[in-house]
Specification:
Length: 141
Amino acid sequence: MKKVAKFDPFYPIRSEIEKNFFDFFNPVARNTAGYIEPAVDVVEQDENIVVKAQVPGIPKENIIIEANGDQLTIKGEHKQEKEEKKENFYRQEIQYGSFYRIIDLPSAVDKDNANAELKNGVLEVTLKKSKALSPKKIEIK
């Protein structure tokens, strides 16, 4: 005998609440393509844009950073140290695999004047704002 699922008018709301709850307590989440998306902060300063990304346990050799116009791409891979065939996991929450994040920046940046530092699992990328695209005051004659 087949079971018929009851109509639940609150399913879309409950689904969204559960997703937000999961995202809040799990800042390194997988997107719909299966890539891990590291949590990021983007801060605009007078001359710079600073992007901080959570990449715990990932060595700098496994991280690639690319700046292009007003976008920053952070990608890489979190590799599992070793795999034991004898182990039976009761719970496995540590995520391994590729990560990929494209961050839209508030303005264009000078990709030649960028610095990156990895400390305590936080990647900090400092990008100089592009002078070529900064507003210019035009005097009326």
